[in-house]
């Protein structure tokens, strides 16, 4: 059994604390609920791959014992979270993904001393689902250490017996999926769509540009959350992975992700690079432009995969009207729409070498926004200046394209049993 001696508990002690019996944790006589920054010149972000056997509490204990964390996370008990969510009431449910249901709640210092009053989202593990400790730990390890205005803030977590829960800042407008595809609602405006694309792109660019790059791996509309001002933040780091290090060009993994969003070369080979996220970004951008979901089995066979159906039309100016969401009814400037369509086309290149980096994507989206703002403010005489994605260093003119067969059917969410064979 782990005995925690430190006065100020660390990430390690908190995660390990999950495995202590309730009696033992109480006998410690101190509340193990706060993790403080331990600033050190030697700070290095802790990775899931640093843990030799994430399914073994003892191994987690050993590997995390010297780790540092950059955020202050709180440890909640299940009974505190029952109070917060009104006993995980169905009427408080915000959504549900592969991990389990997400409930709205409210925290303040009545729940726990020192808590700032605020609404929260509480994600509880579905004990009959395919995910578990590993995904829960991944969220804590990534979101507990990475901080950016385009990543959702993790406030704390809970771990009691088999139960695993995560507590996040509440995002008032929920997921992009709900906002964009909700039936019988007013169509989301073009300007808001581009703002969301830019925010989400900045989130990915931050992950890819980190000292130790992170591959998000599950970029899709249900994992992009929106605050009351439509600022986009990435949530759900359950599948995130550290990028390749040193000489390596990719990380090899089992294929995980979501049908309709994963890059063809990743489906074929399991080779994971930041370029896989760029492809998924292209899918989401295409969904924003068209207002259509990436996979829809109610569409005709030819139209089921949005990318297969629409990508060929993205480059053709004359076909633009057939591509863009008809509900937008000319809200957009056609040059801006064309620039966005060309960007999506590039991100969706079959060969990852032809895709732009996320930093380049951010530049193009910023230039689209600037031009539109200028036009709205009446400065129509100024020359339009979109960053030309064709000039991106990844565009290699004259090079022969490698044709990789694309098969959506190969993609699936792995069962937990398969994951245990080593991802
Ligand atoms: N912080 C939050 N604020 C508001 N809604 C949220 C929040 N987190 C999740 N949700 C809702 O719950 C859904 C599932 O959350 P997600 O983190 O993607 O879970 P999973 O890991 O199970 O896929 C989201 O698509 C969204 O609708
Ligand atoms: Mg999700």
From TrEMBL:
Enzyme class: transferase
One Pfam entry name: PK_Tyr_Ser-Thr
Record bears the keyword DNA-binding: no
Residues covered by the Protein kinase domain: 88-368
Subcellular localization, as worded in the UniProt entry: Cell membrane
EC code(s) of this entry: 2.7.11.1
GO biological process terms held by the UniProt record: defense response
GO molecular function, one term: protein serine/threonine kinase activity
Keyword Cell wall biogenesis/degradation recorded: no
Keywords: ATP-binding, Cell membrane, Kinase, Membrane, Nucleotide-binding, Plant defense, Serine/threonine-protein kinase, Transferase
GO CC, any one term: plasma membrane
Coarse class of the protein's main subcellular location: membrane
Annotated PANTHER family: OS01G0588500 PROTEIN-RELATED
Name assigned to this protein: non-specific serine/threonine protein kinase
Organism, as annotated: Microthlaspi erraticum
């Amino acid at each position: 059994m782990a005995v925690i001696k430190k006065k100020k508990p660390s990430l390690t002690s908190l995660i390990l604390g999950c495995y202590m019996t309730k009696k033992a944790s109480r006998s410690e006589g101190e509340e193990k609920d706060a993790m403080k920054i331990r600033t050190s010149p030697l700070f290095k972000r802790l990775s899931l791959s640093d843990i030799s056997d994430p399914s073994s509490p003892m191994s987690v204990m050993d590997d995390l014992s010297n780790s540092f964390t950059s955020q202050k996370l709180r440890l909640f008990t299940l009974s505190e979270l029952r109070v917060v969510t009104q006993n995980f009431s169905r009427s408080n449910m915000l959504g549900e993904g592969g991990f389990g249901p997400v409930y709205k709640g409210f925290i303040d210092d009545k729940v726990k001393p020192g808590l700032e009053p605020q609404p929260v989202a509480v994600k509880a593990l579905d004990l009959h689902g395919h995910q578990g400790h590993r995904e829960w730990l991944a969220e804590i390890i990534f979101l507990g250490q990475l901080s950016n205005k385009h990543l959702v803030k993790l406030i704390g977590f809970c771990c009691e017996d088999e139960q695993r829960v995560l507590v996040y800042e509440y995002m008032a407008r929920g997921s992009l999926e709900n906002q964009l595809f909700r039936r019988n609602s007013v169509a989301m405006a073009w300007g808001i769509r581009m703002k969301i694309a830019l925010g989400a792109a900045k989130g990915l660019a931050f992950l890819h540009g980190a000292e130790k790059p992170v591959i998000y791996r599950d970029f899709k509309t249900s994992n992009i959350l929106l605050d009351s001002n439509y600022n986009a933040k990435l949530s759900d780091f359950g599948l995130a992975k550290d990028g390749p290090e040193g000489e390596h060009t990719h990380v090899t993994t089992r294929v995980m992700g979501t049908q309709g969003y994963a890059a063809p070369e990743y489906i074929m080979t399991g080779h994971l690079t930041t370029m896989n996220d760029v492809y998924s970004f292209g899918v989401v951008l295409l969904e924003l432009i068209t207002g259509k979901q990436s996979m829809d089995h109610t569409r005709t066979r030819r139209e089921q995969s949005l990318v297969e159906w629409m990508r060929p039309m993205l480059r053709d100016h004359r076909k633009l009207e057939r591509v863009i969401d008809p509900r937008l009814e000319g809200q957009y400037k056609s040059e801006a729409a064309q620039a966005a369509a060309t960007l999506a086309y590039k991100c969706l290149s079959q060969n990852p070498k032809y895709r732009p980096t996320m930093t380049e994507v951010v530049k193009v989206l910023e230039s689209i926004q600037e031009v539109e703002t200028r036009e709205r403010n009446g400065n129509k005489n100024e020359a339009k200046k979109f960053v030309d994605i064709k000039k991106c260093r990844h565009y290699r003119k004259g090079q022969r394209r490698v044709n990789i067969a694309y098969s959506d059917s190969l993609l699936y969410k792995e069962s937990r049993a398969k994951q245990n064979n080593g991802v």
